[in-house]
Amino acid sequence: MADAPFQSIPVPDQDSAPFWEAAKRHELVFQRCSACGQDRFPPAPICWRCRSWDAEWVQSDGLGTVYSWVVVAHPIPPGIAPLVPYVVALVEIEPMVKLPTRLVHVRPDEVTADMEVEVVFEDIDGGMTLPLFRPRGAADTQRRQGQA
Amino acid sequence: VTESLRGKTAIVGVGATDYSKNSERSVLQLAVEASVAALADSGLEAGAIDGIVTYGVNDTVLPRAVGTALGIPELRLQSFLYGGGECCMASIGAAAAAIATGQANNVIVYRAMNGRSEHRLGGTDWEDEYRHAAGEEQFGYPFGWLAFAQRQAMAARRHMIKYGTTTEDLGHIAVTFRENARRNERALMRSEMTLQDHQESRLIADPLRLFDVCIENDGACAIVLTRADAAPSLRRRPVSVLGVAEGGGFRPGSGYEYFTADELADDYSGQISPRLYEEAGVGPQDIDVVSLYDCFSSAVISQLEGFGFCPRGEAGPFVREGRIKIGADIPVNTHGGMLSEAYLHGMNGLLEVVWQLRGEAGERQVEGAEVGLASGFALTTGCALVVGVE
Q1: Do A7 and B142 touch (CB under 8 A)?
Q2: Residues of B with catalytic roles
Q3: CA quadruple B183, B187, B193, B197: dihedral, nearest 10
Q4: CA–CA separation, B168 vs B321, rounded Å?
Q5: Residues B99 and B12: beta-carbon distance below 8 Å
Q6: Which residues from chain A sit within 8 angstroms of residue B147, using beta carbons?
Q7: Which of B33, B273, B21, B299 has the alpha carbon at shortest distance from B155?
Q8: Chain A contact present for B134, CB below 8 A
Q9: In this predicted model, what pLDDT tens digit does every residue of A2-25 receive, in sequence order?
Q10: Which backbone phi and psi does B150 adopt, to 5 degrees?
């Protein structure tokens, strides 16, 4: 059996814990300022716009678009080699809310700017879960291919 | 009215070690060698030095170690800025500000590291560091967004999306710098490179290829900065500090700003250049030679636009038309840059500008160069310096 690719484990802190806890429930959440309504990511203790300390966690519909992306071809660290080539993308789920993530269920040469994507969750070691993204409808395509 | 640094200080000496893949010397020795060379260049004695400034990422020796080694009686200024490219010209600015306000008279600024043989930055041997992603990296590393090339490639792609820049454009940058390095005996990479060689080099983090990525090496650079009124009596033609600026970014201090930037295609340089040029009393049309921070070739694209050497979004055609070559509109990285000369976190670029303004750049001399600019950055924040000769 081939070794699993190297996986870096996120270490939540007081600001980010609700994000990672939601991910474990396969929910994607982000912060919204309770005072001025500004959405923000990554998690922070204070609103960068109005400096209010009050924020709520909002559930995303899990839909977004590709803002930019990278196809990692050279494995760093070497243990990640089984995964290459893989696509790291910035996915915009709301204005001012761009998530670094990995795109799955897509060939690297199929990725385009503004591609419409949806969240999919991957459980990893350490009891953590990563929100990854795939092209919208990829699940349907897979199902059809599975039946063929 | 803000007090300006324009013309208050001058670079009166520069020095460097050889650049190599394995110096076989301590970082302290590298720092001292470069400092001694810069002192000899200036004609100042070590005893005249009363300030030492450096920057680094836990890969250098501290100023007091260099001061002790050199027998400096007392350091009135010792400052260590934490960071790489984003601190390079800012370190000159810190020294210039100290001199301008009378806190020091003669300051050495150095950058020294065994960056290949001992301490690779974000290297392939960082598996332990990458294993647990805390703080600002918890949203990067776990998704396989680990190395600097992968980060910068995200901005490079964004520029391609927004403005139509191509990988061939990046190739023209790499090839131009290599041509310059072939005229520079200090450069580590001097073999011929064609555009085809660039296009056939292996992908590292698409859109960046191997020849879009800077060198890793050992070495040190140093400069001596002094009061403008004391500079003319020294050995070399003084290179006056006209302006320095640092800044950029969005949500300063968040540590996450690279992926919260409003527009990843446009970097720090567009944010700092208005006040840089205002302080220096010059504009981009007055700059004769420039060292742009080229940790990756794509970084040159966004800085050409941000510093006003070409209109926003037009750096691709600008480099394609050869307008950054020696003898063309704005010669960029005449030493070969960090892509082909060496990676000293921007300080080697400043040394080249000084040699150019003193008319000592040999085969790669830009005729009549009187005003130069050197820059550095990391992710979204950076710094730049404008210098000139009478």
Answers
A1: yes
A2: 293, 343
A3: -170
A4: 12
A5: no
A6: 76
A7: B299
A8: yes
A9: 679 999 999 999 999 999 999 999
A10: -70, -30
